[in-house]
Amino acid sequence: MTTSPNAPAIVIQGLTKTYASGLQALKPVDLTIAKGEIFALLGPNGAGKTTLISIVCGIVNPTTGSVLADGYDIQTQFREARTRIGLVPQELTTDAFETVLATVTFSRGLFSRAPNPAFIEKILRDLSLWDKKDNKIMTLSGGMKRRVMIAKALSHEPEILFLDEPTAGVDVELRRDMWALVRTLRDRGVTIILTTHYIEEAEEMADRVGVILKGELILVEDKTTLMKKLGRKTLTLNLIETLEAVPAELAEWNPTLIADGHELQYEFDANAEDTGVPSLIRRMEALGIGFKDLNTRQSSLEDIFVSLVHQSSSQEKAA
């Protein structure tokens, strides 16, 4: 079977997972990921991120639904599909007594790839592991072991790479190296699906963002569209004199006092025709409330994520 160069990298349809205990880990998920895309999957612990990845990678069987990886069915064409996928799991699982070079070379062989020492060397150099190539895994730091897991996942030249919480518990230097590596891989056409707790990773790298909560994919959106659609701005006014409380005359703007009364904060929709900012400032002037400085801040992806989770929880309680 040959796949069209324009075909999606991943197609998930009606995917669910219910365990024998009755726990529904995944509600019906439909998702298409384009080739060369960086897709970030966000969600709290227990939301279903790892379950979803494990099914797509053929580690866990779904209850219902189907997954195509580069056009191959992960259940009926497992070998063809799995060859196209690289997985960096959360757990550091590798042979402690093997050397770095041996374990990465062995991983390539598992996928029936012909030996390619030059390619393995390049991966190890890219991940700052070449000088550790003869070290046993057991002698490495946690960050170095994480790099080895990434090298193993890349050893068979996959077209789709899953990174499940890849930088959890690692140092800032490795996180920066990871971001640089991900961009390099994307430039080569590799599709990357990233799960993370670190919102800044999604904000820094992702093309699209999915939010999963209690097994349900509650939102999938282009990152910039999401930021524009849901992002709000916060106006902070640094007051000349402190206030004990927000004056009743400002109630319609619903501002909040912070920094022990030294600052007044007002949230507004930057896309609205009337943001309320000019009228708020005029009212403050009329009341004799002066300020010496002001600044605005765009809502971050983290703000949006927290807002979405809060909305979902509120709707669940109301139901």
UniProtKB/TrEMBL annotation:
Keyword Transport in record: yes
Highest rank taxon of the organism: Bacteria
Keyword match Glycosyltransferase: no
InterPro entries with a match to the protein in the record: AAA+_ATPase, ABC_transporter-like_ATP-bd, ABC_transporter-like_CS, ABC_transporter_ATP-binding, P-loop_NTPase
Transmembrane segments: none
Residue span(s) of domain ABC transporter: 10-239
Entry's Gene Ontology molecular function annotations: ATP binding; ATP hydrolysis activity
Pfam families, sorted: ABC_tran
PROSITE patterns for this protein: ABC_TRANSPORTER_1 (PS00211), ABC_TRANSPORTER_2 (PS50893)
Entry keyword set: ATP-binding, Nucleotide-binding, Transport
Protein's recorded name: ABC-2 type transport system ATP-binding protein
Organism per entry: Brevundimonas variabilis
